[in-house]
Amino acid sequence: MRCPSNKIDALRCNQLLDVAEQLIDKQGVVSFRFAQIAKGAGCSTNTLYKYFESKEDVLVCLFLRNTTSSQIPIFIKENPDLNIYEHAVLSILFTFEVVKRSPIFNILRVVSINSMFWQLASSDKVEILRNRVNLFWSRIKRPLEIAVERGELQATQVEVDDLSQALYFFLAGATSSYQSRLMDEQYFIADDDIGYRHISRLMNHYQWRQPITREMMQGLSARIQVFLDKGHGDIRSCETCLKIGKQSECRQQFNQ
C-alpha cells in the first residue's frame, strides 16, 4: 500500500492516523479494531482501505510518524554547537525524553519491530520501516565512527560495532522496562541519574579523549526538553515521513 502522493491524501491519511492513535490511547493496541478508525473519522471502510490494507499497516505508520528520526535532524539544526561527545549520546537521550512524554511511542516501537507483526504489513510499509530502523542504528553508530576519525575515540571497527550494539540494547531494555511499570524498584529504578551512570559506564569502557560525564548528559537532556516543549507540530506528518522514507535520502540527511 503506497503512501499518499498529494497533499489532500496526506491530510486524510493523517486524520485517520490521529483517530487510530486516540483509539489506542483509550483501548490499547490489542483491543482496537481496524473498522473503528473509519467510524471515528466519519468515512467509509472503502476510504480506509484506500490508505491502509490492515491494522498492521496503521500501526507501522503510527510508529513511523512518531520516530525520533523525524525530530533529531531538526534538533541538530537548531543546536549547531553540539560537539561529537554530545552527538554520540544524542539518540539515546532523545529517545528517553520522548518515551517519558509519549507512552504510546514505545508501545508502537515494541509492536512494530516484532517480526511476527511487521511481516503482516504491506511491502511498501515494511520497506520504509526497515529503512527507518536502520537509520536509527546509523544515528548511534555514525557519531562513534566520526569520533574515531577525529581522534576523539580510540577504537577498532569491531569495538565501534560492539559499543553501538551495547547502546542500542541498553536503550531497548531500559525503555521497555520503564514503560511496562511491572518491575519493582528493587529491580528497576526509572531515574535519570541511574541512566546517565549506565551510559557513562558503557561509553567510558572505551578510550575517549575526554570522558562522557553525567553533567554533559544532564545539559544535553535539558536542551532536548526545551526542544520538545516547542512542539514542532508539523513533524508528525506524512510529508515529513516521506522525506526520510528512502535509505539513500536518510543517509544523505544524516551526513549533512
Automatic annotation (TrEMBL):
Where does the record place the HTH tetR-type domain? 10-70
Stored InterPro entries: Homeodomain-like_sf, HTH_TetR
The record's section on PROSITE patterns has: HTH_TETR_2
In which residue ranges does the UniProt entry place its DNA-binding region annotation?
A: 33-52
Pfam families reported in the protein's UniProt record: TetR_N
Presence of the UniProt keyword Thylakoid in the record: no
Q: Which UniProt keywords apply?
A: DNA-binding
The name of this protein is TetR/AcrR family transcriptional regulator
Per the UniProt record, the source organism is Shewanella schlegeliana
